[in-house]
Design goal:
Radius of gyration of chain A: 28 Å
Oligomer: heterodimer
Order of helices and strands of chain B: HEEEEEEEEEEEEEEEEEHE
Distance between the termini of chain A: 33 Å
Helix content of chain A: under 10%
Largest interface: A-B, 74 and 72 residues
Structural class of chain B: mainly beta
Number of helices of chain B: 2
Number of strands of chain B: 18
Strand content of chain A: over 45%
Shape of chain B: globular
Radius of gyration of chain B: 27 Å
Shape of chain A: globular
């Protein structure tokens, strides 16, 4: 060791970097820790779970494709919408009530392939945090949860890569320095290739037919990030996500010179520029500019040629949302007992609530028109201040979030107090409580009749009031034997002005440009108990989560004004996730999920009604099929076991892993949707002998084995 | 290595097994629907000014039941106000409905009425309701080609001003009847038929079920003009000629009837629409299903 001396004038706070020379080679020591996180009983924040990306990657998934959102669905208080769906229903909220942030930018559509995969590529992700309640004041704009997903920043020292080749997707991630210790990059891409496999099969099956079938069935996404360190005080991050789904087909019939096609396309663009400024050792500032866009197109086309004359019809339904935002956040640490955060944001929203473009042409007639909604615009503002403070055994996070929303000639304002408390009892048991109010100015209109990404983002208007909620939670948390974390929480949440389609309304607004006439607002309540028991260290890791919950809605215009169970009211929800390292080279992973069946509306009985027939109005009986009450029927309970085994081989400069997964291992028929069916029996003369009606429940994802090859260097 | 071989074998076997099905990704199972005990299904819509008010009674059936609907002919049907001399309805086999013996002067705005239907097999169904006060029609005009619709096409305009009774929530639906004049050079005769396609661009107007009009009929609640007068603009494309008469009808109904008509219309026009939200038709009978409603009618005639 060599002595090192430097003369300092300590008349102010200064930074001093000392570069050390290596003098002794030690055995490798692996230190693992969670940044800024202590033991669960030390944290003031409740209702929050950090998911390590390494743990996410171990959870067996459909087609072996690691999925952040599906892993979040395995946590207590979070429910999936249905088989294979990415929708998150957090403590009785709907998917639009989740603020999902990728590097601080809201993501409006999180699904690929009709919800089977999420848009988040786990190889590009550094951290995932879910907050279900007790929201700190820095968060706002949604009622039910905040999911913060941060991308990796790129390695400033060395070039690294990882990737995988899977059953239906492959991906590659590269990161490294552009300018060592100054600038780094990360690029991560992913694509499915079902369409590439299907093309020759379809072509072969149509060999003797006059039809050419062209199938588009793929998604791709690309994450990119550049991180530049100007000096010890200034850093700049540029990040982006670009993804698209294409799901369509085109059939050309060479016999009659016609073609028919249709499909659906949707995609996101998400980008952020963040400037990180260390003003002084106690004050930090983050300034972020964001851009986010989500578009969906549904299209159909038909063309034919008859005796040289061509006629053509095209229809395209499109909608979406676009955001341009600015945000600045300050972190101020005046002393060890206070951590003060404050800041503000402004976001300009552009909504395209649905329009229909029609084009028709033949030799006599030409039509090219746009029917439907005009764009809507709004601006959302927020200011917040919060303090994480300590007071002996009592810790508290107290804050205030103020937000405002300008739309048309309306200006909504909202003050939202937030408080979180942690009182530590002897034996490291912490009692926690929280109260938070939230306001949401933008809404997602979701059709219960469809499972397509046709949901529409629309603003609050002078007719549609902002959604509001308050939530109270109490709980206890304790770390057991240094390896296990146990938390138990009870919560109660009330929501006001939640939005829903009216009975009989259809999602196709563009046809009459009156989406506000087709929706209604009402109330919701949700309450329950959550238990989370987690093991984070050792050869065996995983968790058990249990949720007991009730979740209701009430709208004056729906169900005769009577309260009814929300579609995703799930009395019991259990998840068991386990990873076990058999040897240094072989690990096994499993996840078992159980959930009470979704509440759906099905006709239970039928009857005739008759209107009076005065003044020659027809006196006509109408058959009415009645559900008795909305969402009174339960689909079958959901349960599923997924398993995977990993074979790891490590070399000095690279490693590879084979992962064999089985989705729905015991091949349980999990409910997807229910439809009515009628089977008729005819005699030999073609007369109807018997007509039998029934209801059928469709399951779409049976046991599905998959294999993937993963590598890292 | 043996572990690897066994897993590879199991994996291949699993792939083989799941590939054998007719449809790899989809399976369908029939589900049980809760049994429905048949009960009374009642349509009792009584108008104060109607001299032949009737009640239609059949029975509800389980959704999977192969049975046909049948009219219930042996029920006891009573309309009671404050347990005082109830009016009884008698079954008419020709019309397959129940008619009141004597109802003149029985229906008045104010008291709560009970419709009680009893049957030895299907039990007892009871619904309650009040008769709202009638609206006053202050003025009525009919102007041929007097307006344009949302798409810019010309239509005949009906402008009606109604006075809403104060102190109660009122709901209205509107119909119009045309008396078409025929003159053969000697005699004049009239035939009466509905005026079709009565519609409005007024954002307060909703649509209610009307058996003669797929698009339904205009309805409005007095939320925004409680106790005051309101001018409603309607239009129609129906053909009328000079000499014809338009009988404009304004029915004052209670909330149950208003919601029922709205839900029935939503149900009716969306029966075969897979993209629409499910509709539950409103019922206000305890112990059965159906609708009991009392209506107060105001009419005004305009001659073209």
């Amino acid at each position: 060791m060599q002595p090192y001396s430097v003369k300092l004038f300590l008349n102010k706070n200064i930074d001093l970097n000392i570069k050390l020379n290596s003098a002794l080679n030690l055995e490798e020591v692996v230190v693992t820790a969670e940044a800024n996180k202590g033991r669960i009983e030390e944290e003031t924040q409740m209702s929050q779970i950090d998911l390590p990306v390494e743990q996410i990657k171990k959870v067996p998934m459909l087609f072996g494709e690691t999925d952040v959102l599906k892993t979040i669905q395995l946590l207590p208080g979070v429910q999936s919408g249905g088989e294979g769906q990415n929708g998150l229903y957090v403590r009785g909220g709907s998917p639009d009530q989740n603020l999902i942030l990728l590097d601080g930018v809201p993501v409006y559509n999180v699904s690929h392939v009709l919800g089977i995969f999420s848009v988040f590529n786990a190889d590009a992700i550094k951290t995932v945090t879910l907050t279900k309640g007790g929201f700190p004041a820095r968060y706002g704009g949604r009622l039910s949860s905040v999911i913060e997903i941060n991308m990796k920043e790129g390695n400033m020292q060395e070039f690294h890569g990882e990737g995988s080749i899977g059953t239906i997707t492959s991906k590659l991630t590269l990161e490294g320095p552009i300018w060592k210790d100054k600038t780094s990059f990360l690029v991560s891409g992913r694509r499915t290739y079902v369409d590439l496999f299907m093309a020759p099969i379809i072509s072969a099956s149509n060999r003797n037919s006059s039809e050419d079938v062209d199938l588009d069935l793929y998604f791709y996404d690309l994450n990119a990030k550049v991180n530049h360190k100007f000096n010890d005080k200034h850093r700049l991050f540029l990040s982006g996500y670009f993804g698209n789904d294409v799901f369509g087909t085109k059939i050309e019939d060479n016999f009659d010179n016609s073609s028919f096609g249709g499909g659906i396309k949707w995609g996101n663009i998400i980008s952020a520029a963040r400037w990180n400024y260390k003003i002084n050792p106690k004050l930090f500032k983050n300034t972020t500019f964001t851009y986010s866009r989500y578009n969906i197109d549904i299209f159909t086309e038909f063309a034919e040629k008859i005796q040289g004359s061509e006629s053509k019809f095209q229809a395209k339904y499109f909608s979406g949302i676009e955001d341009l935002g600015f945000r600045t956040d300050f972190d101020y640490l005046p002393n060890p007992n206070h951590y003060i955060r404050f800041g503000g944001s402004a976001t300009y929203h552009t909504y395209k609530p649905g329009a229909l473009a029609l084009e028709f042409s033949d030799q006599d007639f030409n039509l090219d028109t746009l029917v439907g909604s005009q764009n809507d615009y709004s601006t959302e503002y927020s200011l917040y201040v919060e303090d994480d403070l300590k007071w002996g055994d009592l810790k508290a996070n107290i804050g205030l979030h103020a937000s405002a929303f300008a739309v048309d000639d309306e200006f909504y304002t909202s003050l939202q107090p937030r408080i979180g408390l942690n009182y530590k009892l002897p034996n490291d048991l912490a009692l926690k409580a929280s109260f938070s109010t939230m306001t949401q100015f933008i809404n997602l209109l979701t059709s219960e009749a469809l499972s397509l990404p046709t949901d529409l983002w629309v603003p609050s208007t002078n007719k549609i009031k902002p959604q509001q909620s308050w939530q109270v939670a109490v709980g206890a948390a304790k770390t057991l034997w240094d390896e296990f974390e146990l938390s138990v929480e009870a919560y109660y949440k009330e929501m006001d002005n939640v939005i829903s389609f009216k009975e009989g309304a259809s999602f196709l607004f563009g046809l009459d440009n009156e989406w506000q006439e087709k929706v209604t607002q009402g109330k919701g309540d949700s309450y329950g108990l959550e238990v989370f028991f987690q093991k984070k260290k050792g050869r065996a890791t995983g968790w058990i989560g249990y949720t007991l919950s009730w979740n209701n809605r009430q709208f004056d215009d729906i169900n005769g004004g009577k309260k009814y169970p929300f579609r995703y009211d799930r009395r019991h929800d259990i998840s068991l996730v386990l990873s076990y390292e058999l040897t240094k080279k072989i690990s096994i992973n499993g996840a078992w999920i159980y959930g009470t069946g979704n509440a759906v509306t099905l006709p239970v009985y039928r009857y005739n009604v008759r209107e009076p027939g005065d003044y020659n109005w027809w006196n006509q009986d109408i058959e009415v099929e009645s559900q008795g009450s909305k969402n009174a029927f339960r689909m079958s309970n959901y349960h599923r076991l997924d398993l995977s085994v990993e074979f790891l081989k490590k070399k000095p400069k690279w490693e590879r892993k084979w992962v064999i997964s089985i989705y729905n291992t015991y091949n349980h028929n999990n409910p997807y949707f229910i439809y009515p069916s009628t089977s008729n029996t005819y005699d030999q003369n073609g007369n109807l002998v018997e007509s039998k009606r029934s209801f059928k429940e469709v399951s779409i994802l049976p046991i599905i084995p998959s294999v993937s090859y993963q590598f890292k260097f | 290595m043996n572990i690897l071989k066994n897993i590879a074998f199991g994996f291949s076997l699993a792939i083989g097994l799941v590939s054998c099905g007719e449809d790899f990704f989809e399976s369908t199972v029939e589900i049980d629907i809760p049994e429905h005990e048949p009960g009374l299904a009642v349509s009792a819509i009584l108008t104060k000014q109607d001299t032949a008010n009737s009640v239609y009674i059949s029975k509800s059936l389980g959704i999977l039941s192969p049975d046909q609907y049948e009219v219930i002919s042996d029920a006891t049907v009573l309309l009671d106000a404050d347990h005082n001399n109830p009016v009884s309805f008698i079954y008419d086999a020709n019309e397959e409905e129940y008619y009141a013996n004597q109802m003149a002067g029985f229906l008045e705005a104010g008291p709560e009425y009970s419709m009680i239907v009893e049957h030895p097999v299907y039990g007892r169904a009871v619904a309650k309701g009040t008769l709202p006060n009638a609206a006053k029609i202050l003025s009525l005009t009919y102007e041929p080609n007097g307006t344009i619709d949302e798409d810019g096409f010309e239509a005949d305009e009906i402008t009606v001003e109604i006075e809403d009774p104060a102190g109660e929530a009122n709901y209205y639906y509107f119909q119009a009847i045309k008396r078409i004049r025929f003159f053969n050079g000697i005699d004049t005769s009239y035939i009466t038929e509905p005026l079709y396609g009565l519609a409005s661009r007024d954002p307060l107007v909703q649509r209610g079920y009307n058996s003669g009009d797929y698009e339904g009929m205009p309805m409005i609640s007095d939320n925004t003009f409680q106790g005051r007068s309101y001018t409603l603009r309607l239009f129609t494309y129906d053909e009328v000629n000079p000499g014809d008469e338009i009988i404009f009808q304004c029915f004052s109904v209670n909330k149950d009837r208003f919601d029922y008509l709205a839900s029935l219309q939503a149900y009716y026009i969306n029966q075969d629409n897979p993209f629409s939200e499910p509709v539950n038709v409103i019922s206000n009978f305890e112990g059965g299903v159906g609708i009991f409603a009392l209506q107060n009618l105001t009419e005004m005639v305009v001659k073209l």
